[in-house]
Amino acid sequence: MTYAFSELDLDQHGEDATPVIARMQVFVVAPQPAVAQRIRASLGTDEMIDVQVFHSDLTRLVLDDTADWGTCDFLMVHVTAEDSSVMAAIHCLTSRPGVRMHCVAMVNGPVPQTLEARLLSAGVSRVLPLPAIKEPAAETSATPPKPADTAAAPATSRLHLSETAADRLAGMLEAAPAPEYQDSPAAAEPVAPDATPAIPAQAETPRPAPRTRPADEAEVGAGRITTVLRARGGAGASTLAVNLALDILREAKSPRRVALIDLDIQNGSVGVLLDLPDSAPMSALLCNADTPDDSFLDAAMARHSSGIDVLAAPDIFAPLTALTPDMVEALMQALQKRYDHIIVDMPQAMLDWIEPVFERAVQALIVTDTSVPSIKRTRRLIDVLTEEHMTLTVQVVINKERRPMILSDAQKEAARLLGRRLEHWIPDDPARARKALDAGVPMIQSGPKSRPGKAISALSQTLFALTRTEAS
To answer: Name one GO cellular component term (predicted).
Structure first.
C-alpha cells in the first residue's frame, strides 16, 4: 500500500478540472401557485441563481417529462402528505446515474417524524417546514397552469425515466386502490387519463401504510465492516462512530449484533464516550503479541447498556507498531463471524496493519469539515483508498457544519477538489455535545430529536440501507 502523498496545489487547475458552475439552476415544484411563489420569494434575488417554477404535482411532472431534469442543480418541492408516488418520483430523480441534484422538501407546519424519515430515505437532502398558506378560493380554470419560466431544452439533455420506473409511477397514480379510511367512495373514482382532476378544498391525500426502513437482509454473521476515519484531530470521527453503532441497533427491525471497535490504540476515546473502562485484555494482547480469537473476544468485548459490544482502546500507552497485519486480520475474521455490523474507529496514522481492515470493509466514512487543510487531507485519504481498494465505497461526512441551502463559493470549491458532492452534513451543537461527552451518554440517546441527533439518524439510514441493498 502506498502512503506517500504529493502536495495538492489548491490554486492550480489542470485542463481536466471541472469548472465551478456559474449559475445554479433551481426548480420549484408546487401545485398551489401561492405556495410556489412563497418558496420562490424565499430564494431572494440572486443573479447567480436561475429559478423555474412549476405549478404541478411532482409525480405528474416527472411522468410528463416536461422539465429538463438534466440541468437541475437544486429541486425544491412542496410535499403535503406521505404519498408513495411522490416518494417514488423523488427517488427516481435523485438516484439516476450522473445526476447531481439536491432535493429539499417543503412541508406544511411542523414536520412529522415519519414523513421526514420517508423523505430522507427517498433521497431528499433536507426537510423544511413551510407555514400553512390558505389560498383564496378561485374559479377553476379550464386551462391547466403552465410551468413558469420554463425554457425549451434539447431532447438530448433530458433525464428520461426507464419504462419500468414510468410504469410503476403511472400505476401508483392511475390505479391506486381506495384506502379503507377514505371518507367517501367518490374519492376513489377513476379519472380519465386526459382529464385534469379538480382538487376539492381541504382535501387530504390518503395516508398509505408507513414504509419502514429497509429490512436487514444481510445473513447472520455476514459481518459488514464500516470504517470511520478523520481528516484531522478533533473532527468528531469517534463521536460519529459511537452514535452510528447505537443507531443501527436502535432502528433495527430484527435482532442485530453490532460491534464497535476502537483501533486508535494510542488516543482512542470510544470507551470514554460510552462511560466504559479502557480494555485491559487489549493491553495484554499488545504486550504479548497474541493472535486474537474467539476467547479474546469473550474477554475483551464489553457489553454496553444499549446492547452493542465494544472493544475499547488499551489501558496503556502502546506503540503504534504493537499491532501487526496478521493480528488485525485475525481480529477482523473473528469479528465477522460473530457480528452482523462492525463499526471500526480508525487511527489517524496510516499504518501497514490497517490494510486488512480496508480489505474486508464495505464502506469507509471520512469525517471532515470544509476548511482548506481538512479538504486537502480528505482528498489524500480518498486517493489512497480508491487507488488501493477500488470496490470500497468512500463517503465524506461534513461534521459540525449545518447543511447550507445553497453552497457558498468556498463549499463549491471544496466539492470540486474532492471530486464529489457534499451530501452528508452533521450540524454542530456544542453545548449538547459537551454534556453528552461528560455524561458518557451519546447524543443519539440523550438528544435523538436534536439537530445533530436527527442528522446522524438520517445518515445511518442512508449508509446502512445502501449496505443492506448491496448485500441482497
So the answer is: cytoplasmic side of plasma membrane
